[in-house]
Amino acid sequence: MYTSNALKAELNDKGWRLTPQRETILTVFQNLPEGKHLSAEELHDLLHEQGDPISLSTIYRTVKLMSRMGILRELEFAEGHKHYEINQPYPYHHHHLICVKCNKTIEFKSDSVLKIGTKTAQKSGFHLLDCQLSIHAICPQCQRSIVPN
Amino acid sequence: MYTSNALKAELNDKGWRLTPQRETILTVFQNLPEGKHLSAEELHDLLHEQGDPISLSTIYRTVKLMSRMGILRELEFAEGHKHYEINQPYPYHHHHLICVKCNKTIEFKSDSVLKIGTKTAQKSGFHLLDCQLSIHAICPQCQRSIVPN
DNA sequence: CTCTTTGCAAAGCGTTTGCAGGCCC
DNA sequence: GGGCCTGCAAACGCTTTGCAAAGAG
Questions:
Q1: Where in chain B is the domain with CATH 3.30.1490.190?
Q2: pLDDT tens for each residue of B3-56
Q3: Would you state the CATH architecture of domain B1-87?
Q4: What pTM was computed for the model?
Q5: Which of A5, A10, A49, A9 is nearest to A28 (CA)?
Q6: Does domain A89-149 have CATH number 2.60.120.320?
Q7: B131 and A136 in contact by Cβ < 8 A?
Q8: Which nucleotide is at minimal CA–C1' distance from B83?
Q9: What is the CA A5 to C1' C20 distance in angstroms?
Q10: Protein residue with the closest CA to the C1' atom of nucleotide D25
């Protein structure tokens, strides 16, 4: 479990600050049910509902920052906007199977993919943040659908 | 090699048309050196230079169509715009290691990832279009960089 | 001859940014 | 106290869309 203190330490280490907003956002993602991911706007709404209004720009800045720190994963499901979820280590780390027509997504796990990702980054001297296998496909329902495109 | 005829057949099968623009765009991607990928705008410029001007909207419509047909792959390198490349089958199929700071990308191949993708789609009855492992990381140079964020 | 596709220009929309005030360390 | 961070509103830039004309089958 990644704590606020760990976040603070990591931020301060780079000359940055731990703010209430950043702490709140971290908490939200940690309490999200497994497999649930949020867009910036969904996060904005959720925070508003729970009585912690945070401006959209701060949200955008924070999720980007946390993604680059490896705390969140940025998911691109080709819907025109990004989704975010907490970046869980093994054995919670997972990947996505996505229907390009209806955007239905199914999660799945794979130790070997994670291993390959880790090894590949290492081999080139990269510092790994996240590795995700995205399978773009058409789900059974959409295969049968008559709707064009 | 995916021919114009194959494209025509596949389009007509769905009641669509093979147009000069679509044929030209397919050809461009087929002649691109391995590992090279284009954004919509880059493709637009390239076509212009080679004397085949095609409007940006047609380009957007075409790359989206071909991605959904599984002919092109849509690559998201988090630069705010998508890149496209021809979707090669085994053994040309590859994945990307991306630096989230400078966007440098390194390609790598992996039979096992492709197998896992194929199997996973199959298991859920999905029709596979593309599977890509994206490794988000920080490259050696950027790790050393003093520039914030 | 019908229905798809193109090109143009305008609209759309998620995301970024400049700036003044506020806050963390 | 200094510099980072927030919130607001405006700007941005990639992508999509409406529409009339052109073209494929």
A1: 89-149
A2: 999 999 999 999 999 999 999 999 999 999 988 999 999 999 999 999 999 999
A3: Orthogonal Bundle (1.10)
A4: 0.93
A5: A49
A6: no
A7: yes
A8: D14
A9: 30
A10: B17
